[in-house]
Amino acid sequence: MPTLILLGLVIALVVIFVLKTIVLIPQGEAAVIERLGSYTRTISGGIGILIPFIDRVRERVDTRERVVSFPPQAVITQDNLTVAIDTVVTFQINDPARAIYGVDNYIVGVEQISVATLRDVVGGMTLEETLTSRDVINRRLRGELDAATTKWGLRISRVELKAIDPPPSIQQSMEMQMKADREKRAMILTAEGRRESDIRTAEGEKQARILAAEGEKHAAILKAEADRQAAILRAEGARAAKFLEAQGEARAIEQINTAIKHSEVTPELLAYQYLEKLPKMAEGQASTMWMIPSQFGDSLEQFARALAKKDDDGVFRYEPVKVEKDSTEGSVPEEWFEASANPEIAAAVAAANAVAQKPVDEPEPTAAPAQNETPAVSFDLGQLHKELDS
User: Fold this and answer.
1) Which of 60-64, 170-174, 211-215, 251-255 has the weakest average pLDDT?
2) Membrane-spanning regions, if any (predicted)?
3) Separation between Cα atoms, residue 68 and residue 66, nearest integer Å
């Protein structure tokens, strides 16, 4: 029985010795080893061998990058306004031995140094500069903290101002100021928009009036040109009509004369026709008295002497002149009743219609005539006269 107890004690001592000899340090941590109370070495990420009861682990230190948020600190600005600023510091322990032996509590040290540096930096700025100079404050805080904590084995990687809270009264004033600024900008933008709208509207009206004036100008020019060409065509048509009318009257008289010659009218017939027309001459409303001249017989005798031949018995007898009949006499030219238009005139009218129907904005295919120059009519008047004469 005593042997078993002794054996158990030996096994227990061996287990304790093994536990005291081997130490396991996980990745991201470091262990500060002391031998008989003095710093010996630092073990990180692995298995370490210690001398039992002589070496010991002073403290395990987290070597990963850490983010520490500090509570808001009251800071007075240059214009004597108190603001509450809370900061976030990101740091990493590079030398665990210095972090253990160089400072009692490195987190408290970082906090106090950041507060002192923050008061120094913000104290030289106004409230508006503080609110708009976060990057400047962050750089200065990081530089001061990094310089102060290097001897502690720390590396300050980043410092950020999480919030800057001015007093409530200042916040209300700032909100009112921001509201006034926004309303001012809104009014300015509204005025600018109204101004731009008025300018665009005026420009549009100007362009519309210019286009309307250009359209009226082109329309007046086209109308004047159309009236001019129409007047020319009407004048030419009236002249041709008068010519045709005169030619028709001449041919009608010629036909009547030919018919009279062929009918062999005698003086007796002419005297009879003359006497027959006398009553009709007296039928006028203004004719209240009609007298036959006394020398009427003498007039008939003179007429008979001019047109008749005296026989042996002393009587004047009319002998009509023999007139040879011409095959062309009494015929009417077919072109008198021709209703088709001249092709050249039809082409000129079609060209005028094309010019009148063309849009105003379409460019002219040829150069415009001079100001006092009159475009020529697009048909030959001499040819037209020749056709009418034929």
Assistant:
1) 170-174
2) none
3) 6
Tokens of 5: 């107890």
- Beta-carbon contacts of 248 under 8 Å, excluding residues fewer than 6 positions away, are 336
Q: What ranges in 264-380 are assigned the alpha helix state H?
A: 267-281, 296-307, 343-357
Amino acid at 21: T
pLDDT of residue 241: 86
CB 261 within 8 A of CB 323: yes
Q: Report domain extents, the chain.
A: 13-62, 66-166, 265-279+296-319
145: nearest Cα among 179, 125, 117: 117
As a whole number of angstroms, the distance between CA 81 and CA 86 comes to 16
The CA distances from residue 37 to 23, 40, 60, 162, in Å, are 18, 9, 16, 42
How far is Cα 118 from Cα 85, in angstroms, rounded to an integer?
Answer: 9
The superfamily CATH assigns to domain 66-166 is Band 7 domain (3.30.479.30)
pLDDT at res. 168: 83
Give me the DSSP letters along 71-131.
PPEEEE-TTS-EEEEEEEEEEEES-HHHHHHS-S-HHHHHHHHHHHHHHHHHTTS-HHHHH
Task: Give 206's contacts (C-beta < 8 A, 6+ positions apart).
Answer: none
pTM over 0.70: no
Place of tokens 């120059």: 373
Residue 29: strand pairing partners: 62
pLDDT attached to residue 362: 46
Residues in contact with 167: Cβ distance below 8 Å, sequence separation at least 6, in sequence order: 81, 82, 83
Q: Look up residue 228 and give its two tokens.
A: 């001019």
Q: How far apart are CA 129 and CA 123, in angstroms?
A: 11
- Write the DSSP symbol of residue 323: -
64: which DSSP letter?
A: S
